[in-house]
Predict the 3D structure of the following.
Amino acid sequence: MKFKAIFLDVDGTILSSQRTILPSTKTILSQLHQQGVLITVVTARPPDATWLIFKQLEMPDNPIICFNGGLIEHQNKFIADYSISATMVQQIKEAIQHFDINFTLYHYRDWLVEKIDGMVQRESDVTATKISVVNFNEEKIKQLNIHKILCMGDPSQIEQAEAFLKSEKIFPINLNRSKSTYLEIVHQNASKMLGVKKVMELYGLTTNEIITIGDYYNDIDMLQFAKTSIAMGNAPDDVKKYATIVTDTNNNDGIAKALTTLLF
């Protein structure tokens, strides 16, 4: 089978623990790109933080799937753009206000927060995302198209907030955990798997012609979706079981090892 596209998560997958792209990863993805294989990143990150990855890979014309599928951009055009309504944002904020979490909003390129704590500052440093401190009053929220709500806090508080929102069953949203301290909320039509499907439709691809690669719970749906999928060695066991292949870690040439075995 000749694979025509590879869809990869970023943090914990393309990036090592030191937030760098390993030379082996860059080399094999560059080789495949030159052979005509579509390389697409699928991430919870906003657009600017995602383009940073593609600039390092030297693939600026490829589509990017951001906000866990909430925004797909290709050659300065939006393939998909799913935002959460202002009313829904306000309702979610009020519903989980009793949890000790930092409620933040992404509006395309802008990251809006009411307060900067250690977690917010670290995320900004890691993703090179500019922070804007604002007051989330109802009028302010109405002016924005929110692509992602990011709740940050202690794992126990994040787990409780997630369980509460799931139990309510009144919000048409998708909930994702990209790490134990993050709860990401996006539109119901946004997911990594649905983002992959959108790009596949654009290029006329089938599930037999793609490879998906990821390392965490928000990657499970796209790992299940592809006929061939790779879980990183650093992934939790609960994630690995959904992939057809388990490779080495993101710090030990996992991507290069798996793709070399599959494609060369």
